[in-house]
Structure formats: C-alpha cells, structure tokens
Amino acid sequence: QQQVKQSPQSLIVQKGGISIINCAYENTAFDYFPWYQQFPGKGPALLIAIRPDVSEKKEGRFTISFNKSAKQFSLHIMDSQPGDSATYFCAASMGNQGGKLIFGQGTELSVKP
Amino acid sequence: GAVVSQHPSWVICKSGTSVKIECRSLDFQATTMFWYRQFPKQSLMLMATSNEGSKATYEQGVEKDKFLINHASLTLSTLTVTSAHPEDSSFYICSVSRLIDEQFFGPGTRLTVL
C-alpha cells in the first residue's frame, strides 16, 4: 500500500515532442505528489508538485495531471529538449508521516535531437 | 527552493573504516532532514529521518548502529557509516524539509569502499 508504481522505465522522445510519465498509488492517505528530475551524479531537483484537490498544475513546459479516482498522476513535458534528458522520479507523501517521501522506480528520459 | 550542501562529494575508503558525511542547510533552519541511499540505476531509498535535538528514526531494515545519524544543529546533520564494507558503496543523498511536504535534496556523496 506504500508503493508508488512508475512507468515507463525508459522513454525516448524526439526533440519538440511530448514526454509522458505515469505513476499510480494505492494509499488514499497520500496528499502530496512531487516530481523530481535527476541528472547523473547529482541529487534530485524538485520540478513540480500537486495536491489531491487539484486536477492539473502547469509550470512552464511541465504539467502534472492528477486523477484522484483512478489514483494516478502523470508528468507531461511539452516541447521536450535534449537538456531534459534525465531520470524522473514521482513520489508521494502523507502529511501525518512527517513528510516521508515514497519514490517511484524512476524513468530514464532521452530526448533525441 | 532551498540550498543544501553535502561534504564530501565523493569518498573512497578501505573496508572496516568509518566515514562521515555532512549535510548542511545553507539558507534556512531545518528541523527535519532525511537521509537516502541510491544504488546505480535505482530509485531513492529512505534510510532515516533526522530531527534536530532528538534521535533519528530509522526505516525498517536499516541498521542504526551501522549508520549513525546526528542532527546537532538546525543547519547540520551528519551520517557516519561505521565499519564500512564494499556493499555499503552507494550514493548517499540528504534532503531538508522546509514545509511539511517540500523536500530539497543535496548534491549527494558517492561512497566507494574498497
């Protein structure tokens, strides 16, 4: 019940295309869903996050879509660029757990020029 | 965001020695810090939650006597890997919690145990 399942494991997209990464969870007590971007040898960087009372959040080229009934959320990267090539992690947490993040398995995105 | 530093960025040590990794919150006082480890091509696994002035809370399966965590101030938490062995080689990353949910990560420390 504490798991967050992420797919696909890897993704290849052409420059200018849309990258879509999906995550699913079971525990309805999760109330915070962030996405992180990680480059090789670096720590993860917070990209964008959403709470269950909102169905969509957009920041620049990054959009989170949230489907509470399906217990799924996804990251859309519009106009993907080679510089977006990185590993992306979704995560979930519960406020009453002191902010502990449960991470998905990660998606390695490669954007081809 | 928040600015988090880690020191050292990489370390190589001999089997049986201890290694200390520092995590600093540079732009705000963090009552809660987290320690993760990450193996190549894998996700982040939470090791422990570090609260300033109290004992760390370890995740199931993490040996508290092997991974000593000290959160002595609101800007510094340390992770000491005691009697390190090759299987402890990993990427160790700390994070700080500013609001109850938002976590900002440090750049990580690559530990290699020979």
Mean pLDDT of chain A: 94
Strand count of chain B: 11
H-E order of chain A: EEEEEEEEEEE
Poorly predicted parts of chain A: none
Count of helical stretches of chain A: 0
Number of strands of chain A: 11
Largest β-sheet summary of chain B: 7 strands, mixed
3D shape of chain B = globular
**Percentage of residues in strands of chain A:** over 45%
Largest inter-chain contact set = A-B, 22 and 24 residues
- C-alpha termini separation of chain B: 36 Å
The proportion of strand residues of chain B reads over 45%
Shape of chain A: globular
Q: What is the element string of chain B, with H for helices and E for strands?
A: EEEEEEEEEEE
Explain the overall architecture.
The complex is a heterodimer of chains A (113) and B (114). Chain A is mostly beta strands and 113 residues long. In chain A, 0% of the residues lie in helices and 54% in strands. Chain A has strands at 4-7, 10-14, 19-25, 33-38, 45-50, 56-59, 62-67, 72-77, 86-93, 101-103, 107-112. In chain A, strands 2, 4, 5, 9, 10 and 11 form a 6-stranded mixed sheet that branches. Chain A has a 5-stranded antiparallel sheet with strand order 1-3-8-7-6, with no helix packed on it. Chain B is an all-beta fold and 114 residues long. Chain B has strands at 4-7, 10-13, 19-25, 32-38, 44-51, 57-58, 67-73, 76-81, 90-97, 103-105, 109-113. In chain B, strands 2, 4, 5, 6, 9, 10 and 11 form a 7-stranded mixed sheet that branches. In chain B, strands 1-3-8-7 form a 4-stranded antiparallel sheet, with no helix packed on it. The A-B interface holds A 31-32, 34, 36, 41-46, 49, 89, 93, 95, 98-101, 103-106 and B 1, 4, 6, 32, 34, 42-46, 49, 93, 95, 97, 100-108, 110.
